[in-house]
Amino acid sequence: MISRLEEGKDPSAARISPSRPFPVRLLQFFLLFLVIGIGASFLSMHTIRHFGIHNVALMQSTFRPCFQTPGTIESLIMPPVNLMHKMNDTELFWRASFETRIKDYPFRRVPKIAFMFLTKGPLPMAPLWERFFKGHEQLYSIYVHSLPSYTPDFPPSSVFHRRQIPSQVAEWGMMSMCDAERRLLANALLDISNEWFILLSESCIPLQNFSIIYRYISRSRYSFMGAVDEPGPYGRGRYEENMAPEINMSDWRKGSQWFEIKRELAIRIVEDGTYYPKLRDFCLPHKCYVDEHYFQTMLTITMPHLLANRSLTYVDWSRGGAHPATFGKDDIKEDFFRRILEDQTCIYNDQTSSLCFLFARKFAPSALEPLLDIAPKVLGI
C-alpha cells in the first residue's frame, strides 16, 4: 500500500537528489589543467625541435636560481683541502693534465715547491724536515705516498699531518713504482701554485736550508733529471727492440729515480700514453728496472732541451751492490758532509758551479739524533 505522503511525489525526484548538486566547479578545474598540460607538451616539442635535445638538457643543467652566488676566482685556484679524494688513477691523471695557456695569472700566484715523499711507511727523518720547513709555509706543499696498509699518526701541528694521498702498493723495479711517482705528480698538479716537483724517499735529508734550495731551483732554467746514454749491459743492454718505433736504441736513457722537474714536464709525464705501455710491457725486472729508464727516456725524446741531465740528490754507489750505501749515526760527521758539499763540480745554468747537491740519501733512523745536532752548523738548518 502506498501512503498519502508518497502519493504527492514527483517520480523524477527519485533520480535526482536536491542535496547532491552536479560538481560543475570540479569540471572547470579539470578542463583548466588539461589545457595547461596540452600547452606544455606542445611547447616542449617545439623547443626540442628548434634547439635539439642535447642543448635543452644543457640549458637545464646550467640553470641556476637567481639567488645563488656565482663562482669566484678563489674557488677555482684554491688547492684541495682534503688530499684523500675518491678519484681513480685514470680520473686523477685526466684532471691533473688540465693546464692554463695564459701564464699572465689574474691573481697573485706565489710559485711553490711540491715535496713528494715516496715511502713504505713512517718518515724517520720527519723532525729534521719539520725544522727545514719552518717559517716558509707559503712556499711549499707536501705529498706523501705510502703503503695503503700504513696509517700515519702525525699530530695536527706537524707539516705532514693529513698530507697522505690515495696510494697503492709500489714494488721495487716494477712499473707500480712509476705509477706511484705519477700519482704523486698528479696530486701535486691539482694545486695550481706548485711550479716545481721534487721526488724524495723516507731516507732523504736536505743538505741546505730552505732559502738556498728555493732560490737554486726557482732560478734554474732546467729541470734536474739524469738521462745518460750508457753503452754497457746496464744501459743499452736493457733495451728491447719491441719498444720501437716509439723508442729506438738511440733514444734509450738511464738515470737516477730521484728528480726535480718543472710543471711543464710534470704534466707531460702524467698525460703520457705513448711510452708508458712500451716500458710496462718490455722493461721487466731482473733485466730492466723501469724507474731508471721510463721518465729519463720519455723526456729525452720529447723535451731534451729542458733537462740539466743530472740529479740534485746525492747517492753513494761506491760500496757496490744493487743498492746504494746506507748512512747511520757513525757516519754523521763534519768531514762526511764536507766531501759531499765541497768536493763537487757541476753545471748550473750553463755555468760551472760548486753547489751540486741539495739532498742526499740513504740515511738510517739511527742517524736522526746526530743529524739534528749537526744540522745548524753544517746544513744551516
Question: N-to-C terminal Cα separation, in Å?
Answer: 122 Å
**Global mean pLDDT:** 85
Largest sheet: 4 strands, mixed
Strand order of the largest sheet: 2-1-3-5
CATH architecture of the domain at 83-100 and 109-311: Alpha-Beta Complex
In terms of DSSP E residues, the strand content is: 5-15%
Secondary-structure element order, N to C: HHHHHEHEHEEHEHHHEHEEEH
Q: Give the CATH level 1 class of the domain at 83-100 and 109-311.
A: Alpha Beta
Count of β-strands: 9
- Give the overall silhouette: globular
Number of helical runs? Answer: 13
Helix content: 25-40%
Secondary-structure-derived class:
alpha/beta
Taking Cα atoms only, what radius of gyration do you get, to the nearest Å? 34 Å
Low-confidence stretches: 1-20, 50-69
CATH topology heading of the domain at 83-100 and 109-311 = Spore Coat Polysaccharide Biosynthesis Protein SpsA, Chain A
General description of the model:
With about 375 residues, this protein is of the alpha/beta class. It has a domain at about 85-100 and about 110-310: Alpha-Beta Complex (Spore Coat Polysaccharide Biosynthesis Protein SpsA, Chain A), CATH 3.90.550. It is built from 13 helices and nine strands. It has helices spanning about 5, 25-50, 55-60, 75, 90-95, 125-135, 175-190, 210-220, 265-270, 275-280, 295-300, 335-340, 370-380, and strands at about 110-120, 140-145, 195-200, 205, 260, 315, 345-350, 350-355, 360. Helix 2 (about 25-50) packs across helix 3 (about 55-60) and helix 7 crosses helix 9. The longest helix is centred in the N-terminal third of the chain and has 28 residues, at about 25-50. The protein is globular.
